């Protein structure tokens, strides 16, 4: 049963909600926004159609009891400025804090400097000294990994830093660091090694892409990856196919056999060396391009 001690003050406020305004202004010294009336609102917070709030990821730091973590972290990736986030981020933090009964941090990964600057500000919830300021990682923050050795020990961190622009300038040195990370995961047989490589290449500017692709192809003394070896072998195979196609076109020209643009594309687009070699053999007795291509 709800006690009178509990209901007394609430009853007064229900009867005269202006009391709250007086308390805030006179007892706590708060400067209130302009208003014309003070009314009672519903105490019921349950929605008929509850809104679904979902963060990108939650990480729990646990001790002996996984059900009672010592720290919970909400991790969010923010690609653009979103006026809704100052309202939903506090929901994530407070609901998670109530559910797990532990301290909560909000970490936001931003891929653009302007978005990082926007996210790295305090969210004022309107209550005195009740603010939430995200921990922001992105362009302009200090590099998270600074050596190839560290990248080999913590490859995912190096890759994450590259994806959000927190790896420093995308130059030769930083690309050697991310290559060390990618090679380490690839050599360990990580299931997402190739995916990570594609993600990193997609996130980099063209100049940095060329540097990293060169490292992937040739490798380095310390981090010659299986991916680099496969890439190198694939390059040789592609070079052989290209050579066969060029040879076929030269021989056709030497024999005076005319070829249309569509047929030329058919030859240059063929990736099967056995087929190209068979076409080359047919040229000796062919009179038309149809005799060669069948």
Automatic annotation (TrEMBL):
Q: What is this protein called?
A: Uncharacterized protein
Lineage per the UniProt record: Bacteria, Bacillati, Actinomycetota, Actinomycetes, Streptosporangiales
Domain of life here? Bacteria
- Organism equals Actinomadura yumaensis
